[in-house]
Amino acid sequence: MRFERSMLVVGAVATALLAGAGAHAYTAGGEAIDLHLLLALAALLAAALPHLWVVLYLAGTRRALARETGDASPGRRTAALAAAAALAALAAAGALAVTGARAYIGTGGGLHGPLFWGLLAVQPAALWVEWRALTENARRLARHGG
After folding, report:
1. Three-state secondary structure along 54-120?
2. Phi first, then psi: what are they for 128, rounded to 5°?
3. Which residue, 137, 140, 141, is CA-closest to 7?
4. What is the mean pLDDT of each run of 10 residues along the chain (146 residues)?
5. Are 114 and 123 in contact (CB under 8 A)?
6. 63, 142 in Cβ contact below 8 A?
7. Reported pTM
8. What contacts 10, CB < 8 A, 6 or more positions away?
9. What pLDDT does 45 receive?
10. 45, 68, 48: which is closest to 56 by C-alpha?
């Protein structure tokens, strides 16, 4: 379960980087937008990786266990919850990126601030749901000798 934990650590670091990008934007104002843009893009990319990996990993191990045991139902609920949490975080990150781009080119972006705060709330919640799903998945794998 070490690799799974490292993916969640990447997600936590991405959340901290996102908070740092937001804090930089609020304190520096408009003169240092390039650094804010760089920090935000790095944070959004780093945040997307663990969510995508967790969803693919849970789907793959669930399928392998179903093939081995003949029962496809174990883990379906937790995998679905993890996928929904990941989708919520990815949607919030995508919306933040789009509104940030619109604010950067000057065609709007009024929702960028509220979406930032929303993503800061959704990201840790999604990581927590994914952590629980990975923990349950590890228990299930240990029970079946995987």
Report:
1. HHHHHHHHHHHHHHHHCCCCCCHHHHHHHHHHHHHHHHHHHHHHHHHHHHHHCCCCCCHHHHHHHHH
2. -65, -45
3. 137
4. 83 93 81 84 92 90 80 76 94 92 85 91 94 89 75
5. no
6. no
7. 0.86
8. 46, 49, 50
9. 93
10. 48
Residues 6+ away with beta carbon under 8 Å from 116:
18, 22, 96
pLDDT value, residue 59: 87
Tokens representing 42 are: 């790095």
3-state secondary structure 3-69: HHHHHHHHHHHHHHHHHHHHHHHHHHHHHHHHHHHHHHHHHHHHHHHHHHHHHHHHHHHHHHHHHHH
Q: How far, in Å, are 68, 96, 110, 143 from residue 46 at the CA level?
A: 34, 14, 24, 32
Nearest one of 127, 114, 116, 125 to 93, comparing CA atoms: 116
First to last CA, the chain: 12
Distance of CA 121 to the CA centre of its chain: 11
The answer to whether 47 and 14 are in contact (CB under 8 A) is yes
Query: Distances from the Cα of 99 to the Cαs of 5, 90, 95, 111, 115, in angstroms?
Result: 31, 14, 6, 7, 8
